[in-house]
């Protein structure tokens, strides 16, 4: 059984027919060709597939595509405008990435954090990002990047 | 005109960073889907050790969309680099839960998945040995009865005991004389856990046989050349028939430099020409069907005099390598080479062995698993210091190996910054100040030193190819950058040598079609070997380039240089931008002269610090060295250990990109902390009970210690590119024993088994 859905994806309306078992992650990656959200554990453990659903971070592997009908979804592909988003720039400058597989998910979770807390402290950053694993960096430089970006936005 | 920028020793963002943060980087799973694809449903063993009595494929074959079910009847061959002891598909016996037994090929992933569940395998269970200690018991089951027939087996010193695949020993002095000199002798057994590399990106591979019979493999690997060599040999095909390509690698941590499931899709592609055979491991498969980290059972006996001289050491390092030893051979050799720890000990007998067990094959994780060896040694050193009532810092400084000392290997040690590293970490956590206990909280500080031999396999060498055309300079090397910063390092070396801005240099994705002839696999040696190969290639390239310009300008090549992308003549002060030369030709009085695209190759066969006299055994390029210190707080009621401060210092020779070096160190430190406190793949009756990222604890943001210090020490390495030494492998080595020593100081108990979980501490506190 296929259901027609429409939603805002990075500011543009998209419409497609999805099956009931199809996850948002599969719809984004396989149907819409947006591979920025990474498939890693695919079981809601690691956060690499994090996207924003109505401005809140969600694991796209744990959301069914039919659920997003009428909603707004943002992925890493929608983050940059004319220039890199301050979070993207800070993550590069502060060396907050190595293999890069976790980076898109971390950027979106951090974006959601900064949207409601423009000057988070280190503890708030750690708690907000606790659902995103990174095996490479040891997190310190990612935390620094979020702080630098929060200052740049003001 | 002088050079404005020297590009080594300076921090730059990694060259691929922007593609990664914008989501534009393509990892294996992001490659566009192929047409005419057969998806693999992998049928894996549910038993740790059993004979296969039969496989019923009929129900799976009747499932809609299923094209075929392949078993060992259709696919056979043994994988390995030096020791071919890993069957591509289990034939008559399974040796671990997760071992591939059959492949379902289907038209959709869903059909492949559900049909795989219909394949019925009948087993006759065999006794199980899951640790090295169990496998060494006299009545232990024999895992590889046919071991002596395996290719490579004869050279490895194993086979003397039933489950021992390789053995390497090192002796020096006279052990009995050493014990006679000792005033105190301490014996202790130590254990580390089976851990998982847990790179976020899972393994996956797809392959296709083209009409002309050639095969192409796309895989999530950092070592395409190594895969080509091992797969072509295992399947009995000419290596030139197989092309291996890779995309960005989403973390390797050691598990993506070896061959595993990739051979399955190549074999299936050969059986189904024209189809792309596609296999993605699921999360549990990533934990059970590829690789884990080896565990160590270490027995140490050391003797010390009242004056604080370590005089004798006996060690037995039994490596639990799972069902295959091939990937752990350098671990076995390194543990013997460096088995004394960074200490000067006159009388030594060390035995290091690879022991087969019934779990997933082991592969090193960040280096040659020196973390395991130092978990034992550095705890033992603290016990010796305490026994003669000596300060652990003073005791270490008194006994450490210095440049000029004769090693048990027989070699004279080169200079390292080991003492500087110790000084840095003790200063960072204010070592002298005794931590204040609170009533329910015990605090302690601990430290650890390490050294680690950067080893190279006997066939080791490296090759690089540098090309210059109107796109700038492109470097081809034989290893992908799985996150270490290798490509940025290579670009910095090339730009510096050629006199170019950094963004003129690119490093191309690794593809065996680039035809490098001398591939190497070992990430720990790549700074030295790949770095030197790149230096040779770009130096040759520059000579060709300068010669062309000199001929066009009618000048001596000796007068011509390239600075910040501009070709200049020191004699005539003539100058022209290099990119313009490629676009418009070299400006001469007679009009533009065409500049040909240039290509040059470079090779490196590093001269080892210690050359093994056995052609089958690895040599040592140099020793890396460093120190760590930790302050912990132990909750006396719950047993919970909290790390308050953690400091690590490593002598990296020369930090080519200091902030990327620090980033590697901080990441490594947190992995080391995970080893100390959490990471443990647990087997119950041979079955892994926590094979996923929910139940296997990888450090999270909230696990980060309040204070994490990383320090670079630079004592240049002779023979390293610009004096650089490898580093990424080594930081986790330091942390776990430093934490264990801090816990021991806090609560007065020695926990010899890794990891130190709240539960083990709580039990220990109750029982003692």
Task: Provide structural commentary.
The complex is a heterodimer of chains A (154) and B (768). Helix content of chain A is 33%, strand content 18%. In chain A, helix 2 (86-93) packs across helix 5 (140-153). Chain A folds into 2 domains: 2-76, Ubiquitin-like (UB roll); 86-153, [2Fe-2S]-binding domain (DNA polymerase, domain 1). A 5-stranded mixed sheet of chain A has the order 2-1-5-3-4, covered by helices on one side. Chain A has helices spanning 24-31, 86-93, 103-116, 122-128, 140-153, and strands at 2-9, 12-19, 50-53, 56-59, 72-74. Chain B has 768 residues and is an alpha+beta fold. Chain B is 26% helix and 26% strand. In chain B, the strands form 8 sheets. Chain B has a 7-stranded mixed sheet with strand order 3-7-1-14-11-12-13. In chain B, strands 9-17-16-15-10 form a 5-stranded mixed sheet, sandwiched between helices. Chain B has a 4-stranded mixed sheet with strand order 18-26-27-30, with helices on both faces. Chain B is globular, with a radius of gyration of 27 Å. Chain B starts with 16 loop residues before the first helix and ends with a helix. The interface between A and B is large, with 52 and 54 residues.
Features:
heterodimer; A: 154 residues; alpha+beta; Ubiquitin-like (UB roll); B: 768 residues; Aldehyde Oxidoreductase, domain 4; Aldehyde Oxidoreductase, domain 3; seven-stranded mixed sheet; 30 strands; 26% helix
């Amino acid at each position: 059984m296929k259901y027609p859905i429409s939603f805002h994806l990075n500011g543009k309306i998209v419409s497609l027919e999805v099956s009931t078992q199809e996850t948002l992650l599969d719809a984004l990656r396989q149907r819409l060709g947006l591979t920025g959200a990474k498939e890693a554990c695919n079981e809601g453990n690691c956060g690499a597939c994090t996207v924003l659903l109505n401005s809140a971070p969600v694991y796209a592997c744990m959301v069914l595509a039919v659920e997003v009908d009428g909603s707004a979804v943002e992925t890493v592909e929608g983050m940059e405008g004319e220039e890199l988003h301050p979070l993207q720039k800070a993550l590069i400058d502060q060396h907050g990435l190595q293999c890069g597989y976790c980076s898109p998910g971390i950027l979106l979770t951090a974006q959601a954090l900064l949207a409601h807390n423009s000057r988070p402290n280190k503890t708030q950053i750690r708690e907000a990002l606790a659902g995103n694993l990174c095996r490479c960096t040891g997190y310190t430089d990612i935390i620094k990047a979020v702080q630098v970006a929060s200052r740049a936005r003001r | 005109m002088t050079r404005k920028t020297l590009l080594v020793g300076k921090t730059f963002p990694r060259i691929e960073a922007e593609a990664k943060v914008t989501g534009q980087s393509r990892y294996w799973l992001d490659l566009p889907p192929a047409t005419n694809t057969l998806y693999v449903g992998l049928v894996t063993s549910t038993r740790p050790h059993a004979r296969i009595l039969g496989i019923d494929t009929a129900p799976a074959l009747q499932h809609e969309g299923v094209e075929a079910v392949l078993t060992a009847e259709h696919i056979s061959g043994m994988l390995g680099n030096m020791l071919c002891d890993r069957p591509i598909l289990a034939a008559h016996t399974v040796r671990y839960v997760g071992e591939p037994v059959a492949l379902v090929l289907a038209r959709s992933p869903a059909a492949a998945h559900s049909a795989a569940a219909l394949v019925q395998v009948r087993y006759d269970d065999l006794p199980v040995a899951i640790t090295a200690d169990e496998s060494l018991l006299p009545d232990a089951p024999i895992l590889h009865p046919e071991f002596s027939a395996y290719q490579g087996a004869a050279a490895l010193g194993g086979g003397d005991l039933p489950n021992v695949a390789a053995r390497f020993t090192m002796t020096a002095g006279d052990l009995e004389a050493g014990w006679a000199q000792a005033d105190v002798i301490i014996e202790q057994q130590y254990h580390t856990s089976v851990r998982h590399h847990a790179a976020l990106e899972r393994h996956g591979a797809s392959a296709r046989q083209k009409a002309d019979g050639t095969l192409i493999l796309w895989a999530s690997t950092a070592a395409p050349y190594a895969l080509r060599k091992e797969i072509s040999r295992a399947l009995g095909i000419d290596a030139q028939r197989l092309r291996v390509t890779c995309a960005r690698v989403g973390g390797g941590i050691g598990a993506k430099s070896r061959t595993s499931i990739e051979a399955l899709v190549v074999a299936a592609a050969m059986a189904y020409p024209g189809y792309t055979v596609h296999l993605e491991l699921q999360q549990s498969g990533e934990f059970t069907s590829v690789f884990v980290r080896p565990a160590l059972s270490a027995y140490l006996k050391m003797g010390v005099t009242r004056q604080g001289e370590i005089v004798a050491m006996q060690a037995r390092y039994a490596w639990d390598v799972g069902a295959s030893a091939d990937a752990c051979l350098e671990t076995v050799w390194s543990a013997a080479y460096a088995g004394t720890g960074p200490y000067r000990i006159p009388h030594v007998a060390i035995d290091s062995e690879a022991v087969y067990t019934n779990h997933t094959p082991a592969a090193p994780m960040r280096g040659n698993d020196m973390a395991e060896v130092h978990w034992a040694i550095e705890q033992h050193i603290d016990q010796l210091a305490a026994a003669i009532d000596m300060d652990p810092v003073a005791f270490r400084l008194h006994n450490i190996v210095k440049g000029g000392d004769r090693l048990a290997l027989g070699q004279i040690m080169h200079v390292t910054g080991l003492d500087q590293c110790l000084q840095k970490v003790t200063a960072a956590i204010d070592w002298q100040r005794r931590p204040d206990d609170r009533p329910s909280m015990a605090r302690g500080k601990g430290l650890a030193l390490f050294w680690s031999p950067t080893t190279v396999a006997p066939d080791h060498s490296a090759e690089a190819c540098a090309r210059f055309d109107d796109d700038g300079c492109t470097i081809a090397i034989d290893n992908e950058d799985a996150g270490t910063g290798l490509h940025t390092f290579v670009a910095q070396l090339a730009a510096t040598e050629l006199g170019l801005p950094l963004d003129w240099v690119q490093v191309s994705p690794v593809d065996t079609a680039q035809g490098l002839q001398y591939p190497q696999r070992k990430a720990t040696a790549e700074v030295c070997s790949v770095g030197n190969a790149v230096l040779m290639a770009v130096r040759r390239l520059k000579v060709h380039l300068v010669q062309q310009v000199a001929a066009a300008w009618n000048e001596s090549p000796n007068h011509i240089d390239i600075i910040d992308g501009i070709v200049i003549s020191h004699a005539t002060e003539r100058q022209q931008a290099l990119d313009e030369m490629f676009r418009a030709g070299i400006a001469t009085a007679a009009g533009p002269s065409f500049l040909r695209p240039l290509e040059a190759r470079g090779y490196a066969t590093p001269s080892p610090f210690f050359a093994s006299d056995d052609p089958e055994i690895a040599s040592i390029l140099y020793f890396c060295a460093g120190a760590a210190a930790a302050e912990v707080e132990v909750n006396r009621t719950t047993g919970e250990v909290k790390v308050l401060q953690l400091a690590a210092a490593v002598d990296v020779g020369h930090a080519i990109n200091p902030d990327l070096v620090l980033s590697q160190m901080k990441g490594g430190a947190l992995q080391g902390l995970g080893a100390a406190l959490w990471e443990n793949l647990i087997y119950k009756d041979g079955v892994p009970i926590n094979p996923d990222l929910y139940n296997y604890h990888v450090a999270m943001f909230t696990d980060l210690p309040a204070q994490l210090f990383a320090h670079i020490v630079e004592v240049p390495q002779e023979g390293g590119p610009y004096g650089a030494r490898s580093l990424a492998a080594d930081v986790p080595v330091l942390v776990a024993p430093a934490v264990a020593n801090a816990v021991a100081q806090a609560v007065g108990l020695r926990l010899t088994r890794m990891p130190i979980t709240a539960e083990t501490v709580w039990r220990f506190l109750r029982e003692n």
